[in-house]
């Protein structure tokens, strides 16, 4: 299946109030300078997955820290929410965002801010991330960036 990655930060009607991972985060949080939302479309133009990401100056251990550390010049890309509507689309959106970060050469690391759930742990480990650290309410997984 062919997928297309699209920056949908300016189209909250596509993704707002649909995030099962971090439903408490509002539009303003997600579109703050230094944060982006990506959507993954299939060949028919239907969105199959979404990913919210921030650029930070250090590794956040909570959404509060994510808020404080976000910077448009941040060198750490932090996917903090990923959800999909089709099997395999979550992995695909992570891979396409990783490729985008590698090509842009504007980040030195990709480190998630994931919930402390077994589902998140299995997802990231299956996608070749390493578990970097456990925090009080989150866990950070790191993806390899060339």
Word description of this protein:
This protein is of the alpha+beta class. It is built from 5 helices and 8 strands, in the order βααββαβαββαββ. Strands 1, 2, 3, 4, 5, 6, 7 and 8 form an 8-stranded mixed β-sheet that branches. The longest helix has 16 residues, at 89-104. The relative contact order is 0.17. The model has no long low-confidence stretch (mean pLDDT 96).
The percent range for helix content is 25-40%
Main sheet overview: 8 strands, mixed
Low-confidence stretches: none
Distance between the termini: 26 Å
Helix/strand-derived category reads: alpha+beta
Radius of gyration, in Å, reads: 14 Å
Estimate what percentage of residues fall within beta strands.
25-35%
Number of helices: 5
Please trace the helix and strand order, writing H or E for each element. Answer: EHHEEHEHEEHEE
Count all strands and give the number. 8
- pLDDT average, as an integer? 96
Shape: globular
